[in-house]
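Let's study a protein:

___
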Amino acid sequence: MSVGEFGEQLQDPCHIDVERQEETIYVRVSGALDVDCGRVLDTTLAGFPDDGATAIIVDLRALEFVDSAGLRVLLEHELRSQKKGFGFSLIAPHGHPKKVFDMTNIGQVIDVLPDPDAPTSDAAKAADRASAGLGTDEPDPADWLHRRPS
């Protein structure tokens, strides 16, 4: 976070990274998902899926702030994914955005995956994989999250 002229805390600007691994598009969003970032994210997501991609996973772990405009973009793309028949999931945010997600029950509308870096038991991980439709011998689509951009 940045500090403004009068000592107020300012949200860091939005940053969006896109990576494709096989049939899945991974989108990392950091900073503030507000009206300005929402426009950029909307444009980014509108270009997918393409060329055989079957799913989009939006990683919100580095998100510091989300407002109604950001939620609107996520909800619109969930509806779009249902109409076009591809997967759309979010990786759960932390802090303020998590509180907003909890208050709005967005997880009842959009598939919100747990943070793959959060400590969980093997049984909980297996249950998460099963609920995501993954078998025990299939690669975990969240594995890309452990790699750092070069």
